[in-house]
Amino acid sequence: MKRVTGAFALIDSLKRHGVKHIFGYPGGAILPVYDEMYRVEAEGGLQHILVRHEQGAAHAADGYARATGQVGVCFATSGPGATNLVTGLATAMMDSVPMVAVTGQVPRALLGTDGFQEIDIFGITIPIVKHSYMVQHAAEIPRIVAEAFHIASSGRPGPVLIDFPKDVGTEEFDYTPIDPGVVQLTGYRPTVRGNVRQVRRALELICASKRPLLYVGGGAIAAEAHAQVKQLAEHFHIPVTTTLMGKGIMDESHPLALGMLGMHGTAYANFAVGECDLLIALGSRFDDRVASQQENFARDAQVIHVDIDPAEMGKNRTPDVPIVGDVREVLVQLLDEVAKQQIELEDSQTQAWLGRIAELEAEYPLEVPHPTGILSPQEVIVALTRQCPDAYYTTDVGQHQMWSAQFLNTKPRHWMSSGGLGTMGYGLPAAMGVKMAFPNDPVICISGDGSFQMNMQEVGTLSQYNIGVKVVILNNGWLGMVRQWQHMFYGDRYEATNLEMGMPQFAKLAEVYQGIKGITVTEREELNGAIAEMLAHDGPVILDVRVNRTEDCYPMVAPGHSNSDMIGLHPRSGQVQS
């Protein structure tokens, strides 16, 4: 026990919980904490990354957390600094990302007086965080930090807010540290192991099924369940489709992998959902981008639903066998039962089903458009995967995100994309967070010209810290996904979506900053060389690729339609559905 300030206790508690990088932006209310950061950074072991906007801090912490599985940390000051975190907190909440955000606040005596830069960030963020704290006394800090990390990372992960009044940072107290794993929260004990009877019932359904399908979401990634998913799929010969958040759970070149399902999923995955007799949902939530028409989604199938969040059971689809628990732990239980009962199915049981899947894959393949005079966005993504298959990939939101999900084949935790909230501007700062976690690995942000401009001020952060992120902009001069909807559903009335006239020359913009390389590609024959040049450059790069302005993203399930009712299919048989 020693006498310390609240600011010391906060920084020391973060270090004790394994924090190595903090993404933030200082201001008056949080200055005592930054003054302590000055001392700690000089000693080493903890680095603060100065972003150019607080939203960038939240997304960088988010990307760091998704790639590592650890809790990401961001700082902001009070008032506008705190409110600028809101979109990043909501993004993390929707996608179940473990994060701790610390916001400065006015001194305790000024709370409720409308003091300068006072805002009730505690109240504002209640719906978009897993838990919130307002620190009232410096002596609470060790407990609050320990609880925040436990809550953020256990059960269904999510963001936690700690609001930190300025005078708490300077208040002295007798400090007793609390290390990770010590705190036990009364009333907060997430169910990890599944109910044994339900697990056995699930196994009975799997054994009886002739057309099973695994539908895997982000909960399986969070649970590190990739090995168990593969083992289950291979043992019972079950095809696997993933959500946008579940991408990477299984190598998409695997014979059982069907890629992503849903609005812009593969045709064969969407048809398989309609034809399966058993749907095994692992860490997924039957959201509207996957199941636009709930009543017809896997209509003839029984459903097993495994999720650590009991609130997801029956929220969108009532399962026949609900199992509350960690996806990995439940699969371990199920596979143990398989071994104990020595269950081996005859290959003939699912042979017809796998044959049907093969027919669908052959009839409705994902294909890159035939090369014309103009580069297609799909060509760019395929070229990236050939030259850099093992990279960490982040995306922004829009057409480029869906094409990336269709054509990239990533490893677990190598895919970072805003799913639930659909946050434009996510990709670049998220890539910064990933690169800080893995400085020796390639990190590529695939963005659109609209999304990139949402947070392109973070190019300054890349420059200051020489963060070697490679940004690939699929530049079509539109808010592409919105333009596509205007084309398909609004009679080609292109209101407020054309960006061409105000478009910067991104390569020149990059080179305004020290140490950043800019490259522009306008012709097909330039593409592979430009990607190689980008990857070879020791430092950040912005690669601006001019692509077909009117390319639409297909297949597509229109809102409110069944997954088997897709637009833009071009069967190999020659019959075009529209």
UniProtKB/TrEMBL annotation:
Domain Thiamine pyrophosphate enzyme TPP-binding, chain residue ranges per copy: 396-545
Q: Which UniProt keywords apply?
A: Amino-acid biosynthesis, Branched-chain amino acid biosynthesis, Magnesium, Metal-binding, Thiamine pyrophosphate, Transferase
**Transmembrane regions:** none
Q: Which pathway is it part of?
A: Amino-acid biosynthesis; L-isoleucine biosynthesis; L-isoleucine from 2-oxobutanoate: step 1/4; Amino-acid biosynthesis; L-valine biosynthesis; L-valine from pyruvate: step 1/4
Concerning SUPFAM superfamilies, the annotation shows: DHS-like NAD/FAD-binding domain (SSF52467), Thiamin diphosphate-binding fold (THDP-binding) (SSF52518)
Q: Read off the Gene3D superfamilies from this record.
A: 3.40.50.970, TPP-binding domain
Could you tell me what this protein is called? Acetolactate synthase
